[in-house]
Design a protein that fits this description.
Residues 638-704 form the Mechanosensitive ion channel MscS domain. This protein is of the alpha+beta class. Helix content is 68%, strand content 8%. It contains 24 helices and 11 strands. The two termini are 80 Å apart.
Length: 806
């Protein structure tokens, strides 16, 4: 904040805004000689021009004073630099005096992060001081020039017996220039002194980093060295008792003083933290009313209603989880208190939203977390610290055995099916028990540093897993509720696919939480930096295969861009189909064509970006592609033909998704138009794959291109003495009685053929039952035969093989 204010105050200087052009005539350029240029003396201002030039010079001085008055910014920078010096000196002394046995990898990592914060705070201060120093130098040069001009003007006006008021005005300007010059010189000295101090901070930080690197290597190497007597040695117990009785009181008093001093200097952040808690309570109270209303509409939200029924608990949990935003460089004691306080709302919240079988386990994990935090207070007491490690590990092993026994009894007494969660907990219990046995063996054998390292890693991983599991449940409920609230509920796709969207978000949320759990598990024992360094080395790994240079980063970037492109394509198609096509009237088949075109365009764009990202020269790629075009054209001409034909089908749209077509002897409905072939589900139920080229080059009958109607013709053969009028009336009556026959267009009876001893008629009707037209024809044939038999009409409805049948 101080650096930001400093940047705003010094902005005129840092922006280097040029001063208004002075109307004082500048001295003419001196004549140059071949040996050395002779600087010209300042020229005096003519007497008749003194008043006007004095006003201009006064304005120029005000601008210089406004740029040079950096006393406020100097005070701010001085206070910030003093704070950074204290923090740097404190950490330098801590690293110089540290004992590797008392500093874990976690402590070293925290020191390194604190140094990064100091560097980030010092960088803008150094930048602003550099700008201020440059501006003061320019202002001094300008003041030197003005001083020379007005000194010559005073002398010239005195010699010329100028009016008294003009002479006094000239002297006032000269004195003002001298005063401004003194102020600028003083500010420049202060700025230069601060620059030296800021540079010294950078030197100290470099020294601390070098010591940290050495200490980190020593800490890692000494993990596997015995640093104390074994538990079966009497010296182990004696050291524990003596160290506790001698140093415990002084250690506790010192930690209390450090905590009180930090809270006193950061009181405003504490008040802001409480204010945030109050805002969260108000928001959750308002949300509870809305959630109760939505629960009456959607029963699926009732399961997530519980977390809004305890707004104070949820607000306290969220406020404590956001503590890192309010307290920078806080002492370990404050984080201990925050960790202890956060367990209370966490357990209360978890009991309401988690399965009842997890309640004893939650209490046990919270207890071990508190015990681990309390144990960290005794780091300066090695004997007590090692004893507490053994006690904590023994308790952990006992709790694991009791939990496993309780779960076995629960499922043995009750004939209920074991859930996935219960089986996962059983496997985790056995893994934790094995880990606890290893820690116990290390601690008992005198390898206290290794036991402490493993125990920190185990407790941090378990507690982080519980916290993230509870947060995942809460976020899942929050997402489902947000999908019912504006503005998300205005989207048609959200309203139609709310459950599927929530499930997809929950799946990605679980993946992110799992990755974050790994990060927290590594950060707890201080292994995160080593893991990041290892990943960086792997990222930079490269190898050559002949003349081909392959790097791991290039391959991963290529895969990542292609995957991201595919996901973007899916999202765009979903948005088009649900939000655009559902609101706009388009020709049938056009939405599918647009969606498919967008899909191919995005994939091609992603492929080009992926190739460019890994450094592929597209010019060379184009040349190679051109050289291979002829060979590819001959070798893959059918594939290219089908690809181009597929594009023609998509844009010309002679065939659309859902159309019923006939090609050769195949009749079926179009299911999919791909890049190479089209899939048709035939009337027999088989899926037929037809190359796109046949849809363009061969004859294709589309029964549903313009409408969904189908004409059905039923032939009737009669004797030559038939009563034609009665026959037509009977046939039309049979057609009208069938519900699948449309009355518009009307059914009609046609005289088709006159034979020697027989006449041939045809009943033609229209039906909208496109898939069941054969059944309609069969029903009409049966009904016609029955009607003609009842009326003693000598005729026969026939059903010859149709060329359209498969």
């Amino acid at each position: 904040m101080a650096a930001l204010l400093l940047g705003q105050i010094v902005m005129p200087a840092s922006a280097q805004v040029p001063a208004a052009p002075s109307i004082i005539p500048k001295p003419a350029a001196p004549a140059k000689t071949e040996s050395q240029p002779v600087p010209s003396a300042p020229q005096a201002i003519p007497v008749h021009d003194i008043a006007q030039q004095a006003e201009a010079s006064q304005l120029n001085l005000r601008e210089i004073e406004n740029r040079s008055r950096v006393s406020n910014s100097i005070d701010i920078a001085q206070g910030e630099i003093s704070r950074l010096e204290r923090e740097t000196t404190y950490r330098l002394q801590a690293v110089r005096n540290l004992d590797v046995r008392e500093f874990s990898l976690e402590t070293i990592q925290n020191l390194d992060l604190a140094l990064r914060d100091i560097e980030l705070n010092a960088a803008p201060i150094r930048r602003d001081l550099t700008r201020a120093a440059s501006q003061t130098e320019r202002d001094l040069k300008e003041l030197e020039r003005l001083d020379g001009i007005w000194a010559a003007t005073v002398a010239s006006a005195t010699a010329a017996a100028a009016p008294r008021d003009l002479l006094e005005r000239s002297r006032e300007i000269s004195e003002a220039i001298a005063a401004t010059k003194k102020t600028v010189i003083k500010d420049r000295a202060a700025v230069l002194a601060l620059q030296v101090r800021a540079t010294d901070i950078g030197s100290r930080i470099s020294e601390v980093r070098e010591l940290l690197a050495i200490t980190s290597k020593r800490a890692v190497s000494q993990l596997f060295e015995r640093d104390g007597p074994p538990a079966w040695n009497s010296e182990f117990w004696t050291a524990s008792v003596n160290s506790f009785s001698a140093d415990a009181k002084a250690q506790i008093e010192n930690q209390a003083k450090v905590l009180a001093e930090y809270l006193r200097t950061h009181l405003r952040y504490v008040l802001l933290h409480f204010f945030t808690f109050g805002i969260l309570v108000i928001v959750l109270l308002a949300a509870r009313v809305k959630v109760h209303a939505l629960s009456g509409v959607d029963e699926g939200l009732r399961a997530h209603q519980k977390m809004f029924d305890m707004p104070i608990v949820v607000a306290a949990l969220l406020a404590l989880l956001l503590s890192g935003w309010f307290y920078r460089d806080a002492p370990r004691q404050l984080w201990l208190i925050i960790g202890v306080l956060s367990t209370v709302p966490l357990i209360v919240f978890a009991r309401r939203v988690c399965e009842p079988i997890l309640n004893p386990l939650l209490f046990a994990i919270a207890g071990f977390y508190l015990a681990d935090k309390a144990r960290s207070l005794f780091i300066p007491l090695p004997g007590v610290y090692r004893f507490l490690i053994l006690l904590e590990v023994l308790s952990l092993a006992l709790v694991v055995l009791l939990t496993d026994r309780r779960m076995r009894r629960t499922y043995a007494d009750q004939t209920i099916e074991r859930s996935f969660l219960s089986r996962l907990l059983e496997n985790i219990n056995w893994a934790v028990l094995l880990f606890a046995i290893v820690i116990l063996a290390c601690g008992a054998a005198g390898y206290g540093a290794l036991a402490d390292f493993l125990l920190r890693a185990l407790v941090a991983s378990i507690y982080a897993g519980v916290v993230l599991y509870v947060l995942t449940i809460a976020l899942d409920g929050l997402v489902k509720i947000m999908l019912h609230l504006p503005p998300l509920n205005y989207l048609a796709g959200v309203r139609r696919h709310r459950a599927a969207i929530a499930a997809q978000i929950n799946k990605w949320l679980k993946r992110f939480v799992f990755i974050y759990w790994i990060v927290l598990s590594l950060e707890g024992p201080g292994l995160l930096r080593q893991a990041i360094d290892s990943l960086r080395k792997f990222w930079r790994t490269s190898f050559e295969v002949g003349s081909l240079h392959i790097s791991v980063s290039g391959v991963l970037i290529f895969i990542l861009i292609l995957w991201a492109t595919y996901q973007v394509s899916r999202l765009l198609r979903f948005f088009l189909e649900e939000e655009i096509f559902s609101r706009v009237r388009l020709d049938r088949g056009l939405p599918y064509a647009v969606s498919t075109t967008v899909h191919y365009a995005v994939l091609v764009t992603g492929l080009v970006l992926a190739l460019a990202a890994i450094g592929v020269d597209m010019t060379k790629f184009t040349i190679v592609a051109g050289a291979l075009t002829v060979g590819i054209g001959f070798g893959l001409q059918n594939i290219v033909n089908n690809f181009v034909s597929g594009l023609i089908v998509l844009f010309e749209r002679p065939v659309n998704i859902g159309d019923t077509i006939q090609i050769d002897d195949i009749v079926g409905r179009v299911q999919h138009i791909g890049i190479r072939a089209t899939v048709i589900q035939s009337t027999t139920g088989a899926e037929v794959i037809i190359p796109n080229g046949k849809l363009i080059s061969d004859k294709v009958t589309n029964w549903t291109l313009s409408n969904q109607l189908r004409q059905v013709a039923v032939p009737i053969i009669t004797k030559s003495d038939i009563n034609v009028a009665q026959l037509k009336s009977t046939l039309l009556e049979v057609a009208r009685q069938n519900r699948q026959v449309l009355q518009t267009p009307e059914p009609e009876v046609l005289f088709i053929k006159r034979g020697v001893d027989a006449f041939e008629f045809e009943l033609r009707i229209w039906t909208s039952d496109l898939d069941g037209w054969l059944k309609v024809k069969s029903d009409l044939t049966t009904n016609i035969n029955d009607a003609l038999a009842d009326k003693a009409i000598s005729a026969e409805a026939t059903e010859p093989p149709s060329p359209l049948a498969p």
